[in-house]
UniProtKB/TrEMBL annotation:
The keyword Transmembrane helix does not apply. The keyword Oxidoreductase applies. InterPro entries: NAD(P)-bd_dom_sf, SDR_fam. PANTHER family: NADPH-DEPENDENT ALDEHYDE REDUCTASE-LIKE PROTEIN, CHLOROPLASTIC-RELATED (PTHR48107), RE15974P (PTHR48107:SF7). It holds the Pfam family adh_short_C2. GO terms for molecular function: oxidoreductase activity, acting on CH-OH group of donors. This is NAD(P)-dependent dehydrogenase (Short-subunit alcohol dehydrogenase family). Belongs to the short-chain dehydrogenases/reductases (SDR) family. Coiled coil: none annotated. CDD domains: SDR_c (cd05233). Keywords: Oxidoreductase.
């Protein structure tokens, strides 16, 4: 593929917030690697949309929660593009509502493997390719946290909230570590956004049911989150690093 345009890897780009980021990034001139874990048809639909609109994208399968998945993501990325300029650590999972004293160790292992270790491992691979210290030309990383990192999600999924808290500390530290190497690292905290994630957590109506608890009285859309992600990726945010942006309707 042409190397003229910057290349963006979006983990979990097949659905929800990630899919909106992929479409908006392609419309802004990025070549997009649309990562997915299982839903190849959804990823291919995003790629088809982007190509249909004149943009450039490929679908890349791989579970960010496993070393094998990470290896296949980055080998496919390197085989397709000869550069990497941006990473959006978006892939994330929730569990069904449970108290902390009910959560299994298997659930904790998987939650932290995907949401925390997967994001840190992708950031490592991105820094190896983008840092001027490693001969790269710099770049930007945006980590998708959650208002849960601040609110704690008591009685629903404190484990999930804790994974997002870890991502927030990681963002602060990595931003400072690579600030002089041409890489900016920021995070977005979505509030309640209308995507499939609520159904995957056993609460398909959660976004609508929670509307009255949101100051704006409505859930957000994936595109509203994607707009903030694109800002943080862009040169308009050239002096912004280590920042957290709430996209939560005031929640
Ligand atoms: P979603 O609709 O459930 O979509 C999840 C996406 O992540 C899908 O593309 C899925 O791929 C992918 N994915 C899941 N596990 C993966 C893995 N192990 N490896 C690679 N990809 C994986 O989720 P969403 O609501 O858009 O959430 C995106 C991010 O925003 C998450 O980090 C979430 O925690 C965060 N967030 C969401 C909300 C909200 O209200 N929606 C609020 C705050 C934060 P497949 O299609 O292959 O399954």
């Amino acid at each position: 593929m042409t190397t003229l345009h910057p290349v963006l890897l979006v983990t979990g780009g097949s659905r929800g917030i990630g899919a909106s980021v992929c479409r908006l990034a392609a419309a802004s001139g990025w070549q997009v690697a649309v990562n997915y874990a299982a839903n190849a048809a959804a990823a291919e639909a995003v790629v088809d949309d982007i190509r249909g609109a004149g943009g450039s994208a490929v679908a890349i399968e791989g579970d960010v929660g496993t070393e094998a998945g990470l290896a296949s993501i980055f080998s496919a990325l390197d085989a397709t593009f000869s550069r990497l300029d941006g990473l959006v650590n978006n892939a994330g999972i929730v569990g069904h509502p449970a108290r902390v004293d009910e959560i299994s160790v298997e659930r904790l292992d998987r939650m932290f493997a995907v949401n925390v270790i997967g994001s840190i491992r992708c950031a490592q691979e991105a820094v190896r390719r983008m840092s001027t210290r490693h001969g790269g030309r710099g770049g930007a990383i945006v980590n998708i946290s959650s208002m849960a990192a601040v609110l704690g999600s008591a009685g629903q999924y404190v484990d999930y909230a804790a994974t997002k808290g870890a991502i927030e500390s990681f963002t602060t530290g990595l931003a400072r570590e690579v600030a002089a190497e041409g890489i900016r690292v920021n995070l977005v905290r979505p509030g309640i956004i209308d995507t499939d994630i609520h159904a995957s957590g056993g609460l398909p109506d959660r976004a609508r049911d929670m509307a009255t608890a949101i100051p704006m009285q409505r859930p957000g859309t994936p595109d509203e989150v994607a707009q903030s992600v694109l800002y943080l990726l862009s040169d308009a945010a050239s002096y912004v690093t280590g920042a957290a942006l709430n996209v939560s309707g005031g929640r």
